[in-house]
Amino acid sequence: MNSTGGKNGEQKNSGLTQQQATDDLGIGLSTLGKWITSHKHAELVSGSHDDKDKEQACLRKEARIIRKKRDILKNPPGLETA
């Protein structure tokens, strides 16, 4: 249950090893491993999204610039279409 990988025998906040925790809870080690993996995934998904919001704003700005350049290439200034 360690944040560095959660291997058997490693400890986290509770002070118990994974084996001790599974024995206390009456569950299998693989079940605890699945819970830990699920919890880590949930933390990633529900964590701060500030960086993602900034990146998304940058990507939107870049897309706008690319669309403008594309439109200029499609209809260059000074060339009139008949």
UniProtKB/TrEMBL annotation:
<protein>
    <recommendedName>
        <fullName>Transposase</fullName>
    </recommendedName>
</protein>
<dbReference type="InterPro" id="IPR009057">
    <property type="entry name" value="Homeodomain-like_sf"/>
</dbReference>
<feature type="region of interest" description="Disordered">
    <location>
        <begin position="1"/>
        <end position="22"/>
    </location>
</feature>
